[in-house]
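Appendix B. Raw example, untouched.
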Amino acid sequence: MGWKVRRKPISKGKCAFCGQVIAKSGMRTHFESCKARKNVAAILNKDAEAKPTSFFHLAIEGRDAPEYWMHLEIPADHTLADLDEYLRDIWLECCGHLSQFIIGSVSYMGQPDEAMFFEEDGEEFDPLTGELPPDAPEELKQMVESFRQFLNTIPEEMRNNLMDDIEEKDMDVPLSEVLKPGMKFTHEYDFGTTTELKLVVVSRYDGKIAKDDEDPIHVMARNNPPELVCEVCGKPATLVCSECIWGGEGFVCNDHATEHNLDMLLPVVNSPRIGMCGYTGEAPEDWAFWVDDPSYYQDDEDDEFDDDEEDDT
């Protein structure tokens, strides 16, 4: 009796134009023949109020989690910063971390809002040595701390050169100036708990943007959520332990949340940043209800607790 090879499930996603479910490997070919996509383009081409433009078709996936993928259509006159913001919104943003695109040998750094680094009296704030006010947003504090940790890992001379490069090579550059069909490049979010994406420029083509289209970056297809199951009972997993996920484990349902440290649990979401840092993605607003539920904690009313307080007198 021969060994049976256990194959990984084929990742599939839905075409945004026709609704057909296609395997990841066949999605590019599908777009070339998709009648619904061609009909949308034909309607826009006949619309006199639609704005002519040039688009890039990008295929994107998680470097370490290729089961998370999408196809985007983005105007060529948009900037890397626009693309970075979109990737953050749909897949990545958790604590305002730094990010970068690496195209060839050039790194395009995502700069924090300059207004964040100026104090009220107009003096520039040094993100390497300056002190933020106590009431600064928590996201800003984490972003500055992440930036400092990154810079402190490299020699001072290289750090100064890097700071110069970052200032000269930021993301405020049109895609049309740095991308071309067939090109491969990467995106990194968070230089501590990094989520890295692989991007491919599938094609560039002319088209039109509808007059009322305020955000002309479109998801043409995106992976269906992977079928993750609870490691205890086999039911659909709703939580993942941010400590155990590095070993490919730690997925549980609500009923088995206490199998892991509750403080380390994050919701299962359809993103390559699943289980990292504080990322909650598109999880429901009440996703953490079981963490606050006393029934999930051991009753310690009988435990002795010695609270030694100093006598103020």
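End of appendix B.
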